Amino acid sequence: MSDYSEVCLRTFLKEQKKLFAEPVAETLEEAEAFLEDCMAVVADSLDEVREYFEEEGVDVDGMTPEELEEASEVFPLPDGTYLIVES
User: Fold this and answer.
1) DSSP reduced 3-state for 75
2) Closest CA to 40 of 27, 63, 56, 17
3) pLDDT of 37-82, one tens digit each?
4) pTM of the model
């Protein structure tokens, strides 16, 4: 399997409409392939989420941790980590 845990894949499948108007995956395998194709990353904390966005050139100055967590590209995972998917 990939670097994405089953919980990560299931969370993405359940919450993908947060970022996309139409589902981009319907099975765990499709979710895994999609996340690999768009080079999605898993961050251990909101600080890492902020660092990721800053490295990507996204202006996150002034965003609260809550606003970062609610960003459409950020999927909070049950284990306290965050999946970041850029569309």
Assistant:
1) strand
2) 56
3) 999 999 999 999 999 999 999 999 999 999 999 999 999 999 999 9
4) 0.92
